[in-house]
Amino acid sequence: MKGRNMTDKGQNGPESWLRKLVEWGGLSGPILVLLGLGSLLVPVLVGRFWIEVGTEILVLGLFAMSFNLIYGYMGQISFGHAAFFGLGAYATAIMFREFTGGTEEITILQFFGALLAGPPVAAIGALVVGFFCIRLTGIYFAILTLAFGELLFFVVFSWYTFTGGDDGIQRLLPPPVFRDPTVYYYLTLAIVAAAAAMMWRITRSPFGYVLRAIRENQLRTRFIGIDVRRYMLVNFVIAGMFAGVAGALWGPFTRSVGPLRLGWHESGIAVFMTLIGGAGFFAGPAVGSIVYTFLHAYVTGFTVYWPLTIGTVILLIVLFAPGGLLGVIDAKLIPRILNRGGGEERADNSPKKSGKKRETS
Amino acid sequence: MLTDPGILFATLLGGLSRAMILFLLSSGLSLIFGVMNILNFAHATLWLIGGYITFSIFSFITDGMGFAESGLILAVSIIFGTGVMVVIGYLIERLLISRMYERELPEQLLLTFALILIFGDVIKIIWGVEDRSIFLLNEPWEILDTFVNPYYFIIIATGCAVAAGLWWFLQKTRYGKIVRAAVYSREMVGALGIRIPMIYAGVFALGVGIAGFSAGVFLPLMPMALGVDIDLIVQCFAVVVIGGFGSILGTFVASIMVGIVYAISILVWPDGALAVIFLIVVAVLILRPWGLFGTELRF
User: Do A315 and B111 touch (CB under 8 A)?
Assistant: First the structure.
């Protein structure tokens, strides 16, 4: 690692900045900077429709990143992550309903109060669900999260008086100042950026490295004296809480929430985004969110066969590029930037044994 | 409600026939998982495709060739439909699943998850969005002051027959023994000179074939409709988790349990039918994650 700099050709100019970024955060470093700058410019460059698509990308991107705390870093696949997204959305929506009481008036203070209700409710939900789920791994973890997700879906679906049942909760108009798509976009951007920064910090903390250890080998991690279940539970709750942040932003954005937000389709969205972008990278789900949401907005414009489209995309990625888009870029680009074998981020973060062939090359 | 013997009997019958469909699906699911360690999310979607194909064969024979609609024609259609599904299952294993054995579990799950989406739309493209079912004229039987469709008995008998046949195949035949051996040690079976890839393809085709068969058998009772597959696969997961992966007996008992609990919940608390089943699943996973009939070793 240290000897690398001696063979460098130039230390000045944009190349060395890029190199520093990559050394700091792997491929995610430059990608995050690019996304951050790009997202600031979106409302200046495009019209109302694409601003709203941009907001959707941000909210769902945060949701997918929170999912990747469980999948990419802890190595367990959850098919019920939307439960916490939905819990956050419903908590905010119910606060909205209580504050407005049928009118469409809500003060800014009440609005932020309602937003704040989302994450803790989702975190409590994740604590209860996680308490059971972290006892299992692999296929059983996947089935149990799916079962809990569907269970919560049915609770919300049937509890007509409190949640509105299959009607959901409508007319969630934010205060007048946030009704403008551009303003709501920047509000979302600020919150999502803050949440992403926190998650970044978490994944680079000793806690984050323990998670990677658990992903690689639970038994060995236990042998070095780490309480595996406690770490997994804490991570599950953190992931649920950030999903709740995304959920809280969703209601006022679409002006309504429905029980489908807790269903397995919604959980699938997080899984797909993460897979498209690359689970081995912090920025992977964010990139996946851009690709998925763009594709969705574009494809549904001229065909009703969206599931067929996304299903085929997923199939091809699973078969031919299991590292996701960033995995492909990483293998091609990073060695050139660093003048070496590359794959630091993958060796560091990858949950995939399947990447092994390329790792050794 | 539950004190009326007639309603109770009808509920029981409905529950048992539902149990049969769950068993026919879950046994394939459980067998595939036991042998290949692949959890096939798309199993119920393949079941649905089997139903549509059998329907198409049936309407081809009756409308296209002018035969009268009868149980015999249905039986012929089911045989052809099952054959088609066996071929489809074989192709899916050879072309897609066989590339995934060295992969990690999440990727295997995602592949079959993607198949749900793809097949769902393929059904929409080929058969449209209307429900498809076959009407067979049956004289209802009067039992305990209620009228029941005698077809229920055919379904329950068929389910039990397949269960017995599967048991016989796995316990008594040479190929069944190879399959059971492969559940315990693939390497050892391979070392004995048995071609493991053919066993895998065969088991997958068998599982999908049973699914297609059961869809055909259920056509007169249960319309093939989009979205039914999701409902079913989630309940099948419940069945295999409760019964224990890889255990045919466990799958059978758990199917009956889930089918009857489901039927009674529909009568007592319609909204909560699935919730009750999930509660059982959660309880089993926490107290006995390897299932009621599975062995702890396999967990």
Answer: yes
Which one of B101, B231, B285, B299 makes the best mutation probe of the A interface by having the most chain A beta carbons within 10 Å?
Answer: B285
The two three-digit tokens of residue A318, written as one number: 């699973």
Contact B107 A352 (CB under 8 A): yes
pLDDT reading at B84 higher than 70: yes
Picking from A242, A259, A251, A254, the residue whose alpha carbon sits closest to that of residue A97 is A251
Distances (CA, A) of A8 to A2, A90, A333, B279: 12, 54, 16, 61
Do A264 and A143 form a contact (C-beta atoms < 8 A)?
A: no
The bridge status of strand B141-143 relative to strand B146-148 is antiparallel
Shortest CA gap A152–chain B (Å): 9
Per DSSP, the three-state class of A31 is helix
The DSSP output letter for B224 is B
pLDDT on residue A350: 42
Least Cα separation, residue B233 to chain A (angstroms): 11
Partner residue opposite B282 with nearest CB, options A132, A307, A354: A132
Interhelix angle A264-277/A138-158, nearest 10 degrees: 140
Closest residue to B114, CB basis, from A79, A146, A311: A311
C-alpha pair distances (Å), A257 with each of A50, A90, A93, A171, B87: 21, 7, 7, 9, 44
Is B177:B49 a contact under the CB 8 Å cutoff? no
Q: Which of B29, B37, B104, B230 to mutate against chain A (most A CBs within 10 Å)?
A: B104
Using CA atoms, how far apart are residues A120 and B246, in angstroms rounded to an integer?
A: 40
CB-CB contact of A54 with A215 (8 Å): no
pLDDT band at A65 (very low <50, low <70, confident <90, very high): very high
Three-class SS state of B142: strand
* Integer Cα distance of B159 and A80 in angstroms: 32
The owner of tokens 């046994």 is B27
Closest C-alpha to A61, from A262, A294, A353: A294
pTM over 0.80? The answer is yes
- Check residue A228 and give its pLDDT: 92
Q: Do B118 and A315 touch (CB under 8 A)?
A: yes
Which residue in A71, A136, A264 is closest to B106 by CB distance?
A71
| Mutate: best of A129, A135, A150, partner B, most B CBs <10 A | A150
Instruction: Give the residue on A whose Cα is nearest the Cα of B239.
Output: A143
* ipTM, 2 dp: 0.82
- pLDDT band at B50, cuts 50/70/90? very high
* Whether the Cβ atoms of residue B120 and residue B45 lie closer than 8 Å to each other: yes
Do residue A354 and residue B274 have CB atoms under 8 angstroms apart?
Answer: no
Determine if residue A101 is left, alpha or beta; phi over 0 gives left, psi from -120 to 50 gives alpha, anything else beta. Answer: left
